[in-house]
Each structure stands twice: as C-alpha cells, then as structure tokens.
C-alpha cells in the first residue's frame, strides 16, 4: 500500500520566500475526517516549500526557460528571481482503502540477472480514491482563487505518464507518496493477515514484525510516527512476555 498524492501549483501575487527550510513547512490537516468519507476519500493538504521542484523541476527549468529567451547577466537574475519567489505548490495526500488487488508478489516471468525474484507490484485506485483526488483538486482551485494565486496546474505533459487519468471528465494525475506499507498485515486472524494487534505473528508466537508493513492501508498522514508507536507497542508486549516467563 501507499497513498496517492496529487499536486497543484500556482503563482502567488507576491513573493512568498520559497526554498528556505524543509520541503514542507505547514499544511491543512483539518480536512481529514467527516461523514463525506462514506462517498470519497479524505485528503490532507501539504503546503510545499521548494517552489515547483516536484512537478516542474524548478529552479533548473526556470533557468533553462530564461536562457532560451537569451537572458544573461542582470536580466537572467531578475527573470529567475521574479518567478521563483512566487512559486506555490500544494501536495494533496489521499486516504487509501485496503484494496485486495493491490499487492506485492512474485512471478516466474520476472527475475533479476542472478535468477532472484523481482517484486511484482500492483497498485491501483478505486473510484473512492479518485473521487477524493478530484475533491482535493477542486479544493486547491478554490483556495488559490481566494488567495489570489494564479492556478498554473496543467497535467497535459503527464498524459502519457503513469498516474494520469480522466475521471468524470476531469484530467487528474497522481503519484505514489513513497509511504509504502503492507505485506505483514495486522488483523485479527491468520486467514487474511500476518500479525495481530500486538505485532505478534499469528503463526509463530515468538516472532514480532514491526514497521509500516503491519498497516493494511494508508490514511492521509505520513506513516513513520505510527510505525514508531507500533514498534514501541511491540517492545512492551515482548517485555511483558519475558517478564511472564521469569515469574
Ligand atoms: C522519498 C520518501 C520520503 C518520505 N518522507 C516521509 C516523511 O516525511 N514522513 C514520514 O512519516 N514518512 C516518510 N516516508 C516513509 C518512511 O520512510 C517509511 O514509511 C518508513 O521508512 C517505513 O519504515 P519501515 O521500518 O516499515 O520500513 P523500512 O524503513 O523500509 O525498513 C525495512 C528494512 O528492512 C530491510 N529489509 C528488506 N528486506 C530484507 C530482508 N529480506 N532481509 C533483511 N532485511 C531486509 C530493508 O533494507 C530496510 O532497512 C518517506 C519515504 C520516502 C521513500
């Protein structure tokens, strides 16, 4: 599992000081829950801080564009500064259901040069996530409008790229967030999962598996703090086991 992330980008009406500090300095987490989740996935809004580097490879692409216009010296610096300091980018992280078709497996047809199996990954969105992605994009359009940001989002050059889709007549584009999860799934029984809530293997009682692999799916948030909490929880369970053996 992972959760899809969509991007919106625009030009702010005034300099907003991008590229200073980490890749994301703030966000809007208030949209992550509500009755609407019956109809569509929730999303989290990440306010990006590195210009359009993700969707458009700025600042490099800005320099290339200015050079194509034969700008050099002070003109070049001015062209880069004027554009770069107004770049706004939003990441829309979409909650993902535990879809049973999404899997990592092996297949005799796919091996590396040493003959080892390569992972065969299947990852698709259902209409529920697509509706969430569409709602997130619509939110960005409204937010840009209110903030006076000129929406420059354009998925035309993504049309032949994985993640591009047309949903309910709207062009959308998503990528994996790199927040990989699943495989040693956590659930109540060994029929459809590997570990129980204490992170203990159903089949081998002295084996614990921790990390994002225990998560059957991915909410709107980045997973590492939850994975760390699961690891601490597993450690407590192991310690309890050892104490019980001693006593
Ligand atoms: C580009 C990127 C940005 C990210 N940013 C964030 C972020 O901002 N916030 C956040 O919360 N999360 C973020 N993540 C996600 C985060 O990195 C992962 O969720 C987290 O590392 C998962 O931890 P894990 O222990 O489950 O798995 P991993 O960190 O992948 O650890 C699994 C380990 O198992 C080892 N391993 C695999 N197979 C074997 C084997 N057969 N034998 C022995 N060892 C093996 C691997 O080498 C690896 O060290 C990001 C991920 C990426 C890729």
Main traits of this protein?
alpha+beta; 247 residues; single chain; binds flavin-adenine dinucleotide; 2 domains; 28% helix; 5 helices; 7-stranded antiparallel beta sheet
Describe the structure.
With 247 residues, the protein is an alpha+beta fold. The chain folds into 2 domains: 4-97 and 124-176, no CATH class; 179-247, no CATH class. 28% of the residues lie in helices and 19% in strands. It is built from 5 helices and 9 strands, in the order βββαααβββαβββα. The strands form 2 sheets. Strands 1, 2, 3, 4, 7, 8 and 9 form a 7-stranded antiparallel β-sheet that branches. Helix 2 (60-68) crosses helix 3. It is elongated and about 75 Å long. The model has no long low-confidence stretch (mean pLDDT 95). The chain binds flavin-adenine dinucleotide. Flavin-adenine dinucleotide binds next to helix 5. The site of flavin-adenine dinucleotide has 9 residues, from helix 5.
Concise description?
This protein is an alpha+beta fold. It contains five helices and nine strands.
User: Can you give the helix content as a percent range?
Assistant: 25-40%
- The figure for the number of domains is 2
Rg from Cα: 22 Å
Cofactors and ligands: flavin-adenine dinucleotide
- Span of the ends, CA to CA: 41 Å
What integer is the average pLDDT?
95
Secondary structure tally: strands? 9
Unreliable spans are none
Bulk shape: elongated
Approximately what portion of the residues adopt beta-strand conformation?
15-25%
SSE-based structural type: alpha+beta
The count of helical stretches stands at 5
Biggest sheet: strands, sense, closure?
7 strands, antiparallel
Order of helices and strands: EEEHHHEEEHEEEH
């Amino acid at each position: 599992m992972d959760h899809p992330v969509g991007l919106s980008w625009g030009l702010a009406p005034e300099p907003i000081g991008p590229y200073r500090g980490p890749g994301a300095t703030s966000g809007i987490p208030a949209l992550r829950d509500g009755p609407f989740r019956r109809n569509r996935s929730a999303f989290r809004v990440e306010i990006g801080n590195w210009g359009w580097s993700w969707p458009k490879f700025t600042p490099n692409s800005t320099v290339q564009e200015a050079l194509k216009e034969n700008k050099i010296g002070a003109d070049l610096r001015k062209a880069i500064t004027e554009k770069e300091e107004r770049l706004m980018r939003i990441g829309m992280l979409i909650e993902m259901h535990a879809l049973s078709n999404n899997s990592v497996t092996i297949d005799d047809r796919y091996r590396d040069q040493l003959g080892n199996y390569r992972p065969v990954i299947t990852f698709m969105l259902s209409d529920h996530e697509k509706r969430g992605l569409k709602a997130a994009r619509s939110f960005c359009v409204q937010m840009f409008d209110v903030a006076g940001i000129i929406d420059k989002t354009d998925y035309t050059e993504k049309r032949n790229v994985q993640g591009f889709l047309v949903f309910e007549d709207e062009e959308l584009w998503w990528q994996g967030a790199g927040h990989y999860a699943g495989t040693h799934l956590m659930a109540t029984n060994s029929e459809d999962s590997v570990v129980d809530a204490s992170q203990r293997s159903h089949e081998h009682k002295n084996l614990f598996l921790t990390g994002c692999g225990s998560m059957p799916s991915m909410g709107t948030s980045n997973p590492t703090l939850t994975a760390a909490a699961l690891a601490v929880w597993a450690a407590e369970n192991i310690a309890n086991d050892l104490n019980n053996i001693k006593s």
